[in-house]
Amino acid sequence: MVILWIVLGLLAAFLAVILLRAALFRPKKTAEQPRIVAEFDKDRAVEALRTLIRCKTVSDRDPALEDDAEFRKLIASLPALYPAVCARAPILQLPDRGLLLRWEGRRHDAPTVLMAHYDVVPVEEGDWEKPPFDAVLEDGVLWGRGSLDTKVTFNGILTAADTLIAGGWTPENDVYLAFSGGEEINGQGAVRIVEYFQQHGIRPALVVDEGGAVVENVFPGVRQPCAVVGIAEKGLMDLEYRVVSGGGHASAPPPHTPVGVLAAACARVENHPFPMHLTKPAAEMFDTLGRHAGFGLRVVFANLWCFGPVLNAMCRKSGGELNALLRTTVAFTQMQGSKASNVLPPSASLVSNIRLNPEDTMDSAIARIRRTIGDERIELVKLRGMNPSPISETNCPAWDKVAAAISGTWPGSLVSPYLMVQCADARHYRDLSNHVYRFSAMDLTLDERRTIHGSNERIRVETACRAVEFYLRLIRQC
Question: Active-site residue numbers?
Answer without folding.
Answer: 119, 183
